[in-house]
Design goal:
The complex is a heterodimer of chains A (266) and B (307).
Chain A (H helix, E strand, L loop, with lengths): L1 H19 L6 E6 L3 E4 L6 E10 L10 E8 L2 E12 L2 E14 L2 E5 L3 H4 L2 H7 L12 E3 L5 E2 L3 H17 L3 E5 L2 E4 L3 E8 L6 E11 L2 E14 L1 H12 L1 H25 L1
Parallel strand pairs in A: 2-14, 7-10
Antiparallel strand pairs in A: 1-3, 3-12, 4-7, 4-13, 5-6, 6-8, 8-9, 11-12, 13-14
Helix pairs in contact in A: 5-6
Chain B lengths: L1 E4 L4 E4 H18 L4 H10 L4 H25 L5 H27 L3 H33 L19 E4 L4 E4 L1 H17 L4 H11 L4 H27 L4 H23 L3 H24 L6 E5 L5
Antiparallel strand pairs in B: 1-2, 3-4
Helix pairs in contact in B: 1-9, 2-3, 3-8, 3-9, 4-6, 4-8, 5-10, 6-7, 7-8
The chains are: A alpha+beta (266), B mainly alpha (307).
Chain lengths: 266, 307
């Protein structure tokens, strides 16, 4: 709660700033409530507050048809979508499609629904919106691993399934109306970071649109990383897998011996 | 209370995991099984990635089988010589299982393989044990004593490399125990089980070992095969979650001690019928999942960046 209070205080400071300073063009000023999210053993997800202000062209004038769109995107990685088909009565993974650069996390919030914010071509060109994510050139494979070419509508079904899956896990979210204006210039948006979030470097992009045209963009980084014991164990499991495995097994053997020793004494 | 698992990369409830560990540990102590065939599906059901469930389960099996082996060591009901021969096969089997696991995961058929293998083994062994124990219970009620088929000659006695196993009162070739060990070791690495539920019937029905040394010897062999499997899963797949493993172990070792004691107070044949029923039920549940239409036929996996 203290974090929110600090953020609100910053909002107020921004408001004072924008009221006094003369500006030339509509511009964005934004910040995040935190730039680092630490995943520790008690991590069960968090919320990040993005706040900012629009510096108006002429002080005091009310801008019409002004929209703010916030996109928070996670690190990209290759992902494979597999489709099960019934073969001899059993559901078996059959065709698969691999996308090389799929964001592990994608959250979009806007003042109004995207459809009325800008025309589809603009959104597509700027890759704004879950449907406009560019996952790279897909490779389709048959059950035996050989490359194959799928018709576009069928391949699209795999992409839709990936989005559906990510939405189900809370990793892809869209929130029309998730950006709210507080008065003329200040706006805020909260972004949910679920517990199963992938680690890495995130970017929070804020777009300012007027009459469907982008007039300013601002981008800030956000690090999500494991800390403390979680980081130590994860690092060790990957850099020293043999030692890690031996320790895991030894601890288990010791626990088994300890239990038997304790029970025998009773 | 929730805790974030560093390798599985998701938070779980500490109490749920402890309770699961204790419940499965109780059954494992009771029946002389690793309990993996119960725990692995439960972990996958909780949302733990299959590779992490299988790898982590190996450490839990080490703990529960060390406890079991020590209890049987005190009762002198372990045939170390037979255990050693089984272990040779088990080590080779575990190594091939790990590589098979990796290969199947790469082509996207590991989940299917795990399910099919579970269904096949659970239903066949469950049915066999059920028939056997029901017959034994009936025979006992009728007042007749079941005949032990110890001196029965089979094809096994024609094989070379014979060895004397004093504790088991057997003089047989080392080939069948090595093959049994190999087979169980492979399954152990793929399924995240100790393999007791296959090893024990194999020792009774194929090797014809006396029942009193079967459970102890199986525990002894499983300790080492599971330890190797755990280390190899860590080395090859980085799939051992030490935090999850520790929680399962704590629950498991406590449960197992009570299980061993409960087993002493229960009649052996009824116990066997109960285990057979559990095996059949899990087998049917997994089989149903294979043939019923999935909620979403599409599934998504992250791919390791190709190097």
């Amino acid at each position: 709660m203290r974090r929110f209070a600090a953020a609100l205080f910053a909002l107020a400071a921004l408001a004072a700033l924008t009221a006094t300073e003369p500006v030339r063009a509509d511009q964005l000023v934004t910040d995040l409530s935190e730039h680092q999210v630490a995943i520790r053993s008690n991590f069960t997800g968090t919320q990040i507050l993005l706040f900012g202000a629009v510096e108006a062209r002429t002080p005091g004038s009310r801008a019409l048809n002004r929209d703010v769109v916030v996109v928070v995107q996670g690190p990209t990685r290759p992902m494979t979508v597999r489709r099960k088909e019934p073969i001899a009565g059993i559901w078996i993974n059959h065709d698969s499609v691999t996308y090389p650069t799929v964001p592990g996390y994608y959250a979009i919030a806007s003042t109004r629904p995207l459809e009325v914010t800008a025309d589809p071509d603009t959104l597509k060109a700027l890759r704004i919106g879950i449907e406009n994510i560019n996952p790279g050139t897909p490779t389709a494979r048959a059950i035996d691993g050989t490359l194959q070419i799928l018709p576009p509508d069928e391949e699209n079904a795999f992409w839709k399934a990936l989005i559906r899956n990510q939405r189900r896990n809370g990793l892809y979210t869209s929130l029309p109306g998730g950006v709210t204006f507080l008065g003329q210039t200040l706006f805020r948006a909260t972004v949910d970071i679920p517990a199963n979030v992938p680690v890495g470097l995130y970017t929070a992009k804020v777009y300012l649109l007027q009459d469907g045209e982008i007039i300013d963009t601002i981008s800030s980084p956000l690090y999500i990383d494991k800390r403390g014991a979680e980081r130590f164990l994860f690092r060790m499991a990957h850099s020293d897998p043999l030692l890690y495995g031996l320790i895991a097994v030894l601890i288990a053997a010791l626990a088994g011996w300890l239990a038997s020793a304790v029970m025998n004494r009773q | 209370m929730q805790i974030y698992l560093p390798i599985a990369e998701l938070p779980v409830s500490v109490l749920t995991i402890l309770a699961m560990g204790a419940a499965v540990g109780f059954l494992s102590g009771m029946f002389g099984i690793g309990g993996g065939f119960l725990m692995t599906p439960l972990l996958i059901f909780l949302g733990i990635p299959p590779a992490v469930a299988v790898g982590t389960q190996a450490t839990q099996i080490v703990a529960s089988s060390v406890t079991g082996a020590l209890a049987h060591f005190a009762r002198k009901s372990i045939d170390f010589k037979m255990g050693g021969v089984l272990l040779i096969g088990g080590i080779l089997g575990s190594l091939s299982g790990i590589y098979l696991f990796k290969l199947l995961a790469a082509i996207g058929q590991i989940d299917l393989t795990i399910s099919v293998v579970y269904v096949a083994f659970l239903s066949v062994i469950g049915a066999m044990m059920m028939v056997e124990s029901v017959q034994a219970i009936r025979a006992a009620r009728g007042g007749t004593v079941t005949r032990r088929r110890g001196g029965h000659h089979s094809w096994i006695h024609g094989l070379p490399f014979k060895m004397r196993f004093r504790r088991s009162k057997l003089y047989i070739s080392v080939i069948p125990p090595i093959l049994v060990g190999y087979f169980v070791g492979t399954l152990a690495a793929i399924m995240g089980v100790g393999g007791g539920f296959i090893l024990i019937p194999a020792m009774i029905y194929i090797l014809r070992m006396p029942t009193n040394v079967v459970i102890g010897t199986s525990f002894f062999q499983i300790v080492f095969v599971a330890a190797l499997t755990g280390v190899m899963h860590s080395l090859e797949n980085q799939a051992v979650d030490i935090v999850l493993g520790f929680l399962l172990v704590v629950g498991g070792v406590i449960g197992a001690q009570y299980g061993v004691r409960a087993a002493e107070k229960m009649p052996a044949e009824q116990l066997r019928a109960l285990l057979a029923a559990i095996l059949l039920l899990i087998g049917m549940r997994l089989g149903y999942d294979l043939i019923s239409t999935p909620a979403d036929p599409y599934s998504v996996v992250e791919v390791e960046a190709e190097q």
